[in-house]
Amino acid sequence: LCCVPFGAMFDRRMATERANLLGDVFRSILPLLHMLDDVPLGTLIEAVAGGDGSSFADCDISAIDLPESFQMLDRCALTTLCEVVLEMAERSPLLALLPETIEGIDRIEFVGALILYTMEEPCGLYRLLTHPLNVHGVRSKAALRCQLRYLKLLTVALQIVPKDCEYWYTGVIYRGVSTEGNAALQWKYENFKEAFKPGTQLVFAAPTSATKDSSIAGMFTKGIQFVFQ
């Protein structure tokens, strides 16, 4: 299972032509192509708590339905969280598998970015990336303006982890997707034999999660369960 930076593998003109053929379902993806091209690569603290208008410290979360713990995300708290994460990264065996620096940035910053994305406590910051991109989100560059520097750090981190190491899972995984509020997914749910034939290639247009437990992936009362192997 791997993740590719938005637009990194696409030709802008070709992507536009394909989207025109596919119709309105995919038009919301277009503004996200090449979204990270001009984003500077920096440290974890700069990306998360930098306060330069493009970090989590500047996110407007008032209109997003998030846990109360997000209300405490001031710059000081975010800096402290990053410092704790970087201490955890210092003890990670992954450090030894990476070059000492990548584009002038120490490898510990990339390991820290990966650790931070997987954390549920104290508040699960990954939701600030996934919410603008899910079916109910705005899906625009503007909605992700404050998250771009961290997203750049995270995607580069995913690119530099050696593909033959233990940190890449190669077994069977499951992904459950709710069809609620999405006409396109509802149609695919009702016509799954045609829409999802075995061997179909899928592209998730947002950071997505998966599980090794099929019962967890199947918790939606009406949804699609994907099996990747």
From TrEMBL:
Gene3D superfamilies: Toxin ADP-ribosyltransferase, Chain A, domain 1 (3.90.176.10). This is Mono(ADP-ribosyl)transferase.
